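Internal ticket #5521
Category: modeling
Description: The requester needs a full-assembly model to guide mutagenesis choices. All entity lines are attached below as received. Residue total reported by intake: 615.
Assigned to: D.W.
Attached entities:
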Amino acid sequence: MEKTDQGSVEQGRPETIRAVPVRHPGRWVSVAVVAVLGAMLLHVLFTNPALDWDFVGATLRDPTVVHGIWVTLELTALSMLMGVVGGVLLAVMRLSKNPVLSGTAWFYIWVFRGTPVLVQLVLWNNIGFLWKQISLGVPFGPSFWSQDSNTLVPVFTAALLGLGLNEAAYMAEIVRAGIQSVDEGQSEAAHALGMSRATVLRRIVLPQAMRVIIPPTGNETISMLKTTSLVQVISLVELFTAGHDISTRTYKPIAAMIAISIYYLLLTSILTVGQYYLERYYARGANRTLPPTPLQRVRALFAGRAPAKTAAPASPAAPAAPDAPGGAPGGAPGGAPNDAPDGGKDA
Amino acid sequence: MTDLSKPPQAPAPDPGRPMVRAEGVHKSYGQVEVLKGIDLEVRQSEVFCLVGPSGSGKSTFLRCINHLEKINAGRLYVDGELVGYRQKGDRLHELKDREVALKRRDIGMVFQRFNLFPHMTALENVTEAPVQVKKEGRAAAKERAMALLERVGLADKAGSYPSQLSGGQQQRVAIARALAMQPKLMLFDEPTSALDPELVGDVLDVMRGLAEDGMTMIVVTHEMGFAREVGDALVFMDGGVVVESGHPREVLGNPQHERTRAFLSKVL
């Protein structure tokens, strides 16, 4: 209490601290190391004759490569669709009280997650060796409809089955983790309102589970985009197979692989952006305010302000104790400065 | 306050009719017996308070009433019908999920931790069950929901998400959500225990208003003031049995049992 006499009570507020910041000499060393390594990389990229940039450009424009992009995208989208739908189904089955359903789901996941996707692709592509004909009809009885296996399962379908069914096993575990992350009180409250199990799942549990499900699903999608390159083993021409064909034909593997890598990077970058916005959408209600979108950040930067948080629809109403009168505590000479943090509860 | 918020087909108050009747209700989790034979009767339009130390089984009993918990022995009736079972001859048959859900429509429940749906606004929380369960039209459900939010004093928070509301506000939205199904019975599971002392009053005011409108309410609570002032009947539970019951003013003012006295001396 007495010490305050020596302090700057008269001035009202002590002077703002302008301290010498901590020096980081290590950063300068690391900058130098990175700069040297970067220069070496650039040197290789532009002087090594094996890296024919004109050839990289030609590969980028090659019609089979451009067509391969579409096959890759189609394969990624369709097999992820199969994966997500199948995954939700399997997850719900696994969490079911019905032991037959949960056992079946467990067995499916055990088989499809326990064998390499490469093996599964080859198996689906050769399904004709197992059954020459695929028929619809009474089991062990007459069939109503029949089709040759190789016609029914062309190479694209085989690729889709291999990738999609495998993905479903992984997605099932992701969805299950998401469903289990939702507080039990949520489904209790929903059941207490008279909702059916299906409604509780669809309206209450899954939308909240999405927040946990989306990030790993984004990873799975990006991973799937690259995993599609495995279909080269069954000779389906997508981005990698197209690039690989060019490299074996021209003996310029590095340039060809760099060309298709550029496309892979471009596509994964686009997916990353999509994932960001999807996560943001499902975060509503979970965070009081949503983080600004990159676009809003850029705008805020140009407006000369720090990125402002986007205002939530309503003010975060907290009917807490009225704020302590926010005046400067100084002024009363000799009186103890009222520097107690404004206690909300004091009467 | 508005007539809109009241159930249009509110049954004629008949204070003699039993709304809930328990006969020797037992409940155990594995080896642990939580309810050891509960007998009680809650009449229509009554505010029935359950008090007792934690672990006495009062919340469990409340959850048995809408079949969130299955009872192991005894009989439990709501409005004259068995909870969770159907009697055929001398055997009980479990009800299907759909049939249980149908009965739950008429029983509102308010939880200690509010359990509002965080991904929906206050208004959406209130309209969700009428629209999804009763297939009510969105416009009509919204209109009724606004009236209910008005009634709990939160019409201006209709667009807010639960995370933007204080505990007391969330609990009042939760009450509106339960009322939206026009229940004939409301269960309150320690509705004010998770609230800052300052915010308890608002929630109790809403409950008081409900009691005045003739709602049948079973309230698990530690708010002895509320029980004494609003309650019509009170049961003191301990160790899974009813120790003492009667009018709140009698039980709280002149407890007969040693255990009741010991408990009340700590909470009053």
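Resolution: model delivered.
Comment from assignee: Chain B is about 35% helix and 25% strand.
Ticket closed.
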